[in-house]
Design a protein that fits this description.
- It is a single chain.
- This protein is α/β, with parallel strands linked by helices and 252 residues long.
- The chain folds into two domains: 185 residues, 3-Layer(aba) Sandwich (Rossmann fold), CATH 3.40.50; 46 residues, 3-Layer(aba) Sandwich (Rossmann fold).
- 33% of the residues lie in helices and 22% in strands.
- The protein has nine helices and twelve strands.
- Strands 3-2-4-5-7-6-12 form a seven-stranded mixed β-sheet, with helices on both faces. A three-stranded mixed β-sheet has the order 9-11-10, covered by helices on one side. Strands 1-8 form a two-stranded antiparallel ribbon.
- The longest helix has 16 residues.
Length: 252
């Protein structure tokens, strides 16, 4: 279908636009999302879909996720934004003790599988301690949630739409250093990239290198250096989904 040149934040906007258009129950909420957000990922969506579907919340991450759980349990497709991944920790209890366990706790009578939590992730070189963290490891030991981190605009849109449609609560971390740095031709229409499916970006015979998000680009450079300087053939794998991760592809 039709493609358009997009950077990573524009591909996120496109995915959110597709989700709101397709699903009348879908709502987006968080700090400052109504005017487009700090990184402009929700720009224009309130004007297009109205203030009942794209709206600001108080500065309270625990409340944002708690509200998202309630909205999802009540039948809405809830898309919550935590303004920076570093500030997801006040919501840790809501994510790990409530969202992840809701289906199990209720004996599958209720669930909040329609909840997706988005957050800008990782360092940019000048963010200092509260705007540079990569907190996925804290959540990677918690059954009941999925964690996804894309490496590029094309990946971001397809993976985010898969998270939004997945029937489990998902955390979608967006590498903020790539928001404007990475540009690709991205389909305008919605499409999906399967979750929990790693991608082999480069085959090799000596050593396997596994990465996700921004580090995929670093590790591709490392693989090229290893080949050139040491004659070492590296297989490069983008994990994409951190939980549940694709053990089969990596082990193979």
């Amino acid at each position: 279908g039709q493609t358009q040149k997009m950077n990573l934040f524009q591909s996120i906007t496109s995915a959110l636009d597709n989700a709101l258009a397709k699903d009348p129950t879908a709502v987006i909420f968080g700090e400052d999302v109504a005017f487009g957000g700090v990184f402009r990922c929700t720009v224009g969506l309130r004007d297009k879909y109205g203030k009942d579907r794209v709206f600001n919340t108080p500065l309270c991450e625990q409340g944002i996720v708690g509200f998202g759980i309630g909205a999802a349990v009540a039948g809405a497709t809830a898309i919550a934004e935590i303004q920076f991944a570093d500030y997801i920790f006040p919501a840790f209890d809501q994510i790990v003790n409530e969202a992840a366990k809701y289906r199990y706790r209720s004996g599958d009578l209720f669930n909040c599988g329609n909840l997706t939590i988005r957050a800008p992730w990782g360092c940019v070189g000048h963010g200092a301690l509260y705007h540079s963290q990569s907190p996925e490891a804290f959540f990677a030991h918690c059954p009941g949630i999925k964690i996804v981190i894309p490496r590029s605009p094309l990946q971001a849109k397809g993976l985010l739409l898969s998270c939004i449609e997945d029937k489990n609560p998902c955390i979608f971390f967006e590498p903020k250093i790539l928001y404007r740095a990475a540009v690709e031709q991205v389909p305008v229409e919605p499409y999906n990239i399967p979750l929990s499916q790693a991608e082999v970006l480069q085959t090799g015979s000596d050593v396997t290198l596994v990465a996700w998000g921004t580090q995929v680009h670093v590790i591709k450079e490392v693989a090229a250096m290893a080949q050139e300087k040491l004659g070492v053939s590296c297989e490069v794998i983008d994990l994409r989904t951190i939980l549940p991760w694709d053990t089969e592809t990596v082990c193979k």
